[in-house]
Amino acid sequence: MSEFVIKGGTVVDSNGERRVDVLVSDGVIREVAPSLRAERVLDASGCVVSPGFVDLHVHLRQPGREEAETVETGSRAAALGGFTAVVAMPNTDPAQDSVAVVEQVRRWGIEAGLCEVLPSGCLTVGRAGERMAPIGELASVGVRIFTDDGNGVQDPLLMRRIMEYSSDLDVVLAQHCEVSRLTTGAVMHEGCCSSRLGLPGWPAIAEELMVFRDIELARITGARLHVLHLSTARSVELVRAAKADGLPVTAEVAPHHFTLTDELLESFDALYKVNPPLRTPADIAALKEGLRDGTIDAIATDHAPHPPASKEQPLDSAPPGMLGLQTALPLALGELGLDLRRIVELMSVAPARIAGVSDRHGGPIDAGRPANITVFDPEQTWTVRGTQLASKSRNTPYEGRTLRGRVRHTVLNGSPTVIDGAAQR
Amino acid sequence: MKHLRSVGELDRASALELLALADSMAEINARPIPKVPALRGKTVCSLFFEDSTRTRMSFETAAKRLSADTMNFSVSTSSVNKGESLRDTIETVTAMGVDAFVVRHRTTGVPWQLSRWTNASIVNAGDGWHQHPTQALLDAFTIRRRFGLTGDLAGIRIAVVGDIKHSRVARSDVELFTMLGAEVVLVAPTSLLPPSLEGWGVSSVVHSIDAVIGEIDVLYLLRMQMERQEQSLVPSLAEYTDRFGLTPPRAERLRDSAIVMHPGPMNRGVEIVVDPAELPGSAILDQVANGVSVRMAVLFQLLGSGSGLSESAGGSW
Known about the structure:
The structure holds two protein chains of two kinds.
Chain A: E1 3-7, E2 10-13, E3 16-19, E4 21-25, E5 28-33, E6 41-43, E7 48-51, E8 53-58, H1 71-80, E9 83-88, H2 99-112, E10 116-119, H3 135-140, E11 145-146, H4 156-166, E12 172-175, E13 188-189, H5 192-197, E14 201-202, H6 204-221, E15 225-227, H7 233-244, E16 249-253, H8 255-259, H9 281-293, E17 298-299, H10 308-311, H11 328-335, H12 340-354, E18 373-383, E19 402-412, E20 415-419, E21 422-423
Parallel strand pairs in A: 1-6, 2-7, 8-9, 9-10, 11-12, 12-15, 13-14, 15-16, 16-17
Antiparallel strand pairs in A: 1-4, 2-3, 4-5, 7-18, 18-19, 19-20, 20-21
Chain B: H1 12-29, E1 43-48, H2 53-65, E2 69-74, H3 86-94, E3 100-105, H4 110-115, E4 121-127, H5 133-146, E5 157-161, H6 168-179, E6 183-187, E7 204-206, E8 218-221, H7 227-230, H8 237-244, H9 248-253, E9 259-261, H10 284-303
Helix pairs in contact in B: 1-5, 1-10, 2-10, 5-6, 5-10
């Protein structure tokens, strides 16, 4: 299928909206115009044709936790969710703190051939928060995003030095903002719900202190900071103020943080345990406003697969995290009240820019550009079933929910990875 | 009622019904042979992931006095593999034929998780900092008896003192006491209060025991754990005792009719400096005795067919 036309859809990208067909051949967008013809057709009637989505935050679990997910199964979930590139978080075993591991993860991604896997690198050796990882060496093999995700770098001196060292490299320092001394044993958001349930709380201030610290460190070092999975109203304010000051700070938010609240923990189901935790309706309102006004740059899933048995442990031992790749688009379409152009910006254009892959992802849908394209039907409804998701795990918090909006086709480098909602490999 | 996992599963009427049933159980317990066949053929299994000999014995005594068979699945915390699935444990034991599990676990929520994987009834004997509903019932029962009440606790003023934040006893008691119309005052430093008291229904929070000690009917002292000092929640246990302990001068200020309660085990010299045996108002041993009657009532309510309380076991006495 080296030449085909995406026919009958509405292209939505950074240039706006237009009713055109898209002719793809040899991996490249050849022509964008009304009424194009080719022998093979991907029907896009009633659908949106957008640049492929880019997820800045995915746990593919390989190497080390293959019972939860592999690069291949996670890539398949990504393709079905409309993603053509995903940033693989480094909390693998071994961690992605060496060229060997990073290259291996990238290779697995190429072998799977379902989306471009962009391995992140660790900020510190083994994500232990003690010594700087080989950031320059990893950057020289193309690693762009550095993070100890799952852990925040606690030591302010070490973080300052990492920022100073990396400020002349073209890299992004992505922080998991959590002052761990304030969250020891925490299971859920600290508030009236945790107080009533007698569950150790994860206070908003534990995130906000580190958001504040890193913004101020970025201010004095000139480092490029990306705040991972922002979850509190005050964090949004801090990022908004940093941007107003012209600092090179970006931020992402995960769909579960703008759709679900801490009260779900009343079920005591570890499915709803996630880090940072589900917060309050007031936080959700602030996140939505941040997504609307540009304070928050990207929607990132924090897709975190865990096998059923691990979520059947007591709440304190069960690992945090939930699936996200296949539900992100409908949640963004259904819950934010934003126009399609802004949704495409949040899911494709901006994350592609942050991940440093704008040359091939994030559009625009113009002749001559690499053909990384997502076609979705914004009206189609479907019911989430964990067993029917492509992930190896089933820990979706949306089980049984009917969502509106579904990916129909995904095209990676000119080859369809998903046609009519079915993965092609 | 299928389970008793929290006070929230009760309402005023069902709580009062359980307390009335506990009165009947107390009558049985006063007989020469305190045993009835009400739960003959039923199996009650203690599933204690956290040790508590006292609570386990209280439940087992209650079950045996109702002629239930008892099983004991004891998991000391040290032997519980962190990776062990709760589901595997409960499914295995359920397969042996169990009608009710009495569950204690160091983590909040485990009784709810377990009830997804078993058809048996679950009685929560303490989960994390969250709930211990039979403790609340036995405390309400004790207060009713000591004040000669037959209905709810309206008009009774109760001070709950100490580590509210980490206490399942406090969460259960406050919920039940307020449900039954009592006025509840919390007495603690802010570091030992939960971050929010929204929805707790307490009438006030004070940071000094001296402010309320002469004006209350019930002084409920919570156990102060030694580790709270290491966690810097209080500067020292000595300072805690100074500010919040029941010292002899404070005992002097108690009303003549006031009673003193404690869920046990007591830290003598910390939350209580006086000898409880010398306190005329001490209801601490009553609480222990009443625990058996209340737990009999709960097990009977969950598993009983509604008859069998009038005859004695074997009928031979």
